[in-house]
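User: For my dataset I need records formatted as: sequence, then structure tokens, nothing else. Please produce one.
Assistant:
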Amino acid sequence: MLRENLVTGLKEFGLSEYEAKAYLALSLHGPLTASGVSEKGRIPQSKVYGILRSLSKKFLTESWNGKPLKFKSVEPSIGLKKILERKRMSIENLREKSEIILNQIKPLKGFETEQFGLWSSSGKLACMEKAAEMLERAKKFGYATTSRFSRYPVLDNAYVSALKSGIRIKMLGTSKLDQTKKARATWYSKQGAEIRILEMRIHPIIGIIDNKEVSFRLDNSNTPDMIWSNNPALINVFKIYFEELWKKAKRFKV
């Protein structure tokens, strides 16, 4: 039986489930006929030849034109490096294209983001992506409240980059810290963020950047909505609210 964690790992390299199973079967059991791949990989006989052709196009398998026809995997250390190299080249190609597109896309005269007061994003990941985007625009400071000190790769990178650039980051925890939350808060603290804790019955999620933009999250469902605004009056209201909470909060000790 093929280990599910290996199948899952190969799928992260861009292989389908059947491709991952076929490649594992060949890597673990050596050269096999199509029937052998079907049996060892638990792949329907009707699909196995198509899967093997697909792996061949990805330079992950080779065939021996004998009787019976047999297939073998390219050495995993080589095969995975080939996948990574192709992905690297693809990313480089996309980066070059993005630069061309960004240079050609210019807002129409008079069409500026500042004219629009409120925007919304739905879903937890979208909210975190928006928070990271806001941090990337920070020039002076970033303030945020959080109930969980959640971590997310894109957000982590934005925090580290901002702190290294000298941006002052204040994070206010609004719930009691269990072991997991404390570990996350410790990570943020070690990066250079100022952290205080104020346990609250209601947990407002707020982000403020440079007196220029604010976001607040509504956790009314499993797919929370984030509201973003660059309205000066709204920014000022949330900043005053944050500063009042900050005064009452206790300093987090690592």
